Amino acid sequence: SNHNGTNVGATRGVAGILNNSFDFENDESDVVNLTDISNISDVDEFGLSLWVNPEVMQSTDIFIAQSTVGASDASFILRVDVNGKIDFVLWNQAGGLRQLNSNFGKSASGEWTHILATYDGARVWLFVNDSLSATGTLTGNVRNSAQNITLGSYNNRANFYDGLLDEVFIWNRNITGSEITDLYNNETAISCSKAFGPTITLNSPINAFNTSNQTINFNGTVTSSEGITNVTLFIDGVLNETNSSGINDTDYLFTKTISDGNRNWTYESCNDECTTATRNLQ
Fold first, then answer.
1. Which one Pfam family would you cite for this protein (predicted)?
2. What is the rounded CA–CA span in Å between residue 100 and residue 89?
3. How do residues 96-146 score in pLDDT, each as one tens digit?
4. pLDDT at residue 35 in the model
5. Quick one: pLDDT at residue 82?
């Protein structure tokens, strides 16, 4: 979902890594303030991606945070640490935290750098320019913080960033594998709205379902923040039927009569990108 922010001073329309970016000046106390985003609070997975281009490197500058200085209910912070490195901190509901830091990998000032942090409920990863830079363990849901999410400073207007920010995205799920590469895309940014296809949840039959009944009811839920073009059922890799209704966040049902034997069935759904999910029948 899109969440609008309140821009306090940052210059809009400056050339970014993709289209336009926001230009923050630390001596002018620029900040973009987002209200609390409930759908990333108390979640068991988390993902954060953005491009940064610092004009002046200053220790403890904030790229993005859900925290004030020294807050007891901080959720996450992405910043420059006292050694001039990228520093990411994520807290769980119990107050435990995982802190990861990394070199920029390029000349920090005047260069675009892609930073991605992600959490799967058991481990936190920090990627810089599509390379894994640091990882560590953490368990439990992400802390439900009362702080607003802010770009360019803490929520209480401190530690102001000086430079450009672009393509800032937060997810309530873990980001993995080719998705990370797609976001970096060989040093050429792509729109995050086109980075991921729909999410498919296969409801029934269960995997390795064993039945003598040749009539099978297939059920899968398909969701996407960017809408859905179609959902297609494949049986043994062969297209069987396509539903082009384009209804988002709903169950797609197909009833089919199939012959005995081991089979695999796949749902494919597309918008700008396509995703698939597969199970087996016995």
1. Laminin_G_3
2. 6
3. 999 999 987 655 678 899 999 999 999 999 999 999 999 999 999 999 888
4. 72
5. 84
Residues of the chain falling short of pLDDT 50: none
- The position carrying tokens 């089919």 is 256
- Residue 32: strand pairing partners: 7, 151
Ramachandran angles phi, psi of 147, nearest 5°: -75, 150
CA-based torsion, 179, 180, 181, 184: positive or negative: positive
| Domains located in the chain, CATH noted | 5-193 (2.60.120.200), 199-281 (2.60.40.10)
| Both tokens assigned to 236 | 């043994």
Task: In whole angstroms, give the CA distance from residue 83 to residue 100.
Answer: 13
pLDDT number for residue 189: 57
Return the HEC string of the chain. CCCCEEEECCEEEEECCCCEEEEECHHHCCEEEECCCHHHCCCCCEEEEEEEEECCCCCCCEEEEECCCCCCCCCEEEEECCCCCEEEEEEECCCCEEEEEECCCCCCCCCCEEEEEEECCCEEEEEECCEEEEEEECCCCECCCCCCEEECCCCCCCCCCCEEEEEEEEECCCCCHHHHHHHHCCCCCCCHHHCCCCEEEEEECCCCECCCCCEEEEEEEEECCCCCCEEEEEECCEEEEEECCCCCCEEEEEEEECCCCCEEEEEEEECCCEEEEEEEEC
List CB contacts of 247: < 8 A, sequence separation 6 or more. Answer: 228
